[in-house]
């Protein structure tokens, strides 16, 4: 479990993180979402002790990350722009990390395979593509078999295969009971894997919400109605308080009245329905509404 309480960090006049509080629970993927510059990386850096907060606290498993005896075995971290010695091979890089934590060479081979780097293990990391470097970063994060995994924009630079790999990996890690916090600025990507969302803007928490709740909250934006009795329906719906727009092809776009009510109203007027389709507001739209209205 990760607990962040009233965390604040300023860089000069910029409040990168501003009184942020949240809890990241085990057994599910928590998406950490916010537009560029929202404060995601700074928050993650403070959780793992790389940036010092001006005020507030961040703990992992009940203690500040840096006070743990073997950080790599407690929290696996992938931060943007993580440095790898360019002259070392992927295997040498991981073996170097492993040695500092008493981790076996067998585990190094295991995470290389898990990251799809088995064939590139003995190539210099300096020659790696962005996607391969990301894979090596994830392999490093998982090396110590940590209960908590923090990944900053892990799909950056990955090809479709890599994106699919990350999605499956995140879900597997959560299913194993681990705490998984993964940042992104894209709702479309996060919605595929996350069970829970923390949405931030301007360093502040804008929403702490389950993905299912957000889908419900997004609600129905409008219903599409097709009927040979469109004129009858149009006036009946307007009288019932709906906002109705007639499309060029004769379809009606109906707002402000639920699909059930439209069906009932049509039946009472003996109007035939050929189509009655509720359209959900997209998660993307809900995310934009949250970040725009409260940022
Ligand atoms: N070392 C630093 N010095 C000065 N300002 C910084 C520093 N690090 C971050 N900032 C500023 O703090 C704010 C939050 O940045 P941060 O990188 O945490 O956002 P982010 O949500 O991770 O954005 P992105 O999605 O672009 O990575 C931004 O305004 C950024 O310019």
TrEMBL record:
<dbReference type="InterPro" id="IPR003439">
    <property type="entry name" value="ABC_transporter-like_ATP-bd"/>
</dbReference>
<comment type="similarity">
    <text>Belongs to the ABC transporter superfamily.</text>
</comment>
<keyword id="KW-0067">ATP-binding</keyword>
<dbReference type="Pfam" id="PF00005">
    <property type="entry name" value="ABC_tran"/>
</dbReference>
<protein>
    <submittedName>
        <fullName>ABC-2 type transport system ATP-binding protein</fullName>
    </submittedName>
</protein>
<dbReference type="GO" id="GO:0016887">
    <property type="term" value="F:ATP hydrolysis activity"/>
</dbReference>
<keyword id="KW-0547">Nucleotide-binding</keyword>
<dbReference type="InterPro" id="IPR003593">
    <property type="entry name" value="AAA+_ATPase"/>
</dbReference>
<dbReference type="InterPro" id="IPR017871">
    <property type="entry name" value="ABC_transporter-like_CS"/>
</dbReference>
<dbReference type="InterPro" id="IPR027417">
    <property type="entry name" value="P-loop_NTPase"/>
</dbReference>
<feature type="domain" description="ABC transporter">
    <location>
        <begin position="2"/>
        <end position="227"/>
    </location>
</feature>
<keyword id="KW-0813">Transport</keyword>
<dbReference type="GO" id="GO:0005524">
    <property type="term" value="F:ATP binding"/>
</dbReference>
């Amino acid at each position: 479990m990760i607990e962040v309480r009233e965390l604040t960090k300023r860089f000069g006049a910029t409040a990168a993180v501003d009184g942020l509080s949240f809890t990241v629970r085990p057994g599910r993927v928590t998406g950490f979402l916010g537009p560029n510059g929202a404060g995601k990386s700074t928050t993650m850096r403070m959780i793992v002790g790389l940036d010092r907060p001006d005020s507030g606290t961040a703990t992992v498993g009940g203690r500040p990350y840096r006070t743990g005896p073997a950080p790599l075995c407690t929290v696996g971290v992938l931060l943007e722009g993580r440095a790898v010695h360019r002259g070392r091979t992927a295997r040498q890089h991981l073996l170097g990390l492993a040695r500092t934590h008493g981790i076996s060479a067998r585990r190094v081979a295991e995470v290389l395979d898990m990251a799809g780097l088995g064939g590139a293990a003995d190539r210099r990391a300096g020659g790696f593509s962005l996607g391969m470097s990301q894979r090596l970063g994830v392999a490093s994060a998982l090396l110590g078999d940590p209960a908590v995994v923090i990944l900053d924009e892990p799909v950056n630079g990955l090809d479709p295969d890599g994106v699919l790999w990350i999605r499956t990996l995140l879900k597997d890690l959560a299913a194993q009971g681990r705490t998984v916090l993964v940042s992104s600025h894209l709702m479309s990507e996060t919605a595929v894997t996350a069970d829970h969302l923390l949405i931030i803007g301007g360093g502040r928490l804008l929403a702490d919400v389950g993905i299912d709740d957000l889908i419900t909250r997004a609600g129905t934006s409008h219903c599409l109605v097709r009927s040979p009795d469109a004129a009858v329906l149009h006036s009946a719906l307007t009288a019932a308080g709906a906002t109705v727009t007639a499309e060029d092809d004769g379809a009606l776009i109906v707002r402000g009245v639920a699909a059930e009510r439209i069906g009932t109203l049509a039946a009472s007027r003996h109007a035939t329905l050929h189509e009655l389709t509720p359209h959900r507001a997209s998660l993307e739209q809900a995310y934009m509404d949250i970040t725009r209205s409260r940022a």
